[in-house]
Amino acid sequence: MKKRIVAIGACVADTLMTLPHFPKEDSKLRALASKTAGGGPAATGLVAAARLGADAAFIGNLSSDASGAFLLADFKKYGVSTEHIRVLDGYRSFCSVIWLSEESASRTCVFDRGDLPPLTLTDAARTAIKDAAILMVDGNDMDAAVEAARHARESGTAVLYDCGGLYEGVFRLLALTDIMIPSEEFALGHTGERDAEAAAKKLFALYSPRVVVITQGSRGGLIYDGESLTRYPVFPVKVKDSNGSGDVFHGAFAFGLTKGYSYEKCARFASAVSALKCTGVGARESVPSFERVLEFLKENDYEL
Hints:
By secondary structure, the protein is an alpha/beta fold. The chain is built from ten helices and 13 strands. The protein has helices spanning 41-52, 66-77, 123-131, 142-155, 170-174, 184-191, 196-207, 245-258, 263-277, 290-299, and strands at 5-8, 12-19, 33-39, 56-63, 81-88, 95-101, 107-112, 134-137, 158-163, 179-182, 211-215, 221-224, 229-232. The strands form two sheets. Strands 5-4-1-8-9-10-11-12-13 form a nine-stranded mixed beta sheet, with helices on both faces.
């Protein structure tokens, strides 16, 4: 039985600045703390799955610059296989600076996409995709992601799409998606609907995935499988860093699928993982252990 999770998408070197509050324009403000952390939707989701216990591998290009070296080491630190990563000289890494406000528990992100060339799949990467249980994509490296999704479909590998950005040609990837997990903003923007329920049903009608799971931030989210529409909750915690919580949700959902959970159980499990992650600073390092998630769910009167 296939168990490995592989991912293609953005891998970002984040500089996290914890601030007492957001500064006014043209002013100075002393940060409370700063740190470098790995980011990117599919990449961080993959790390979350690995930290929970999944066999995980990333497929992509990284630069040989300092940020790229950090990102490569960060994957290895969290047990993600790097055998399908190409390290290229002479390019600038995808980087971001993220402000985390203690006052509002919100974040503001400014990013530089860098200039790494588009990913080209190798024969080994194609084999890894076909042998995996789940392929995670986020719309970055679109052409490679579409090709990978086609290979996945041919071999029975489930395609889980973290739909966050309304990228050009996104319909190509949506049409090859099995587990569609869009943000509410994406779902409404792509479908033109006014509410999440109608958007979920329209996405299902347009692209025929196995399931649509719309994330709604602090309001939890909803699940639509073509027949029934159900909601999943958000778990209340004291938030220190919400950055990457959606990415972690996707990775935890993928992990839940490899455990054989129903879509409803996957969503509740992923919501719990995401909540616990928000109690620490750094999307990857704050992902809890599988055992801690089970304890947290019991504390909140829910058992898988």
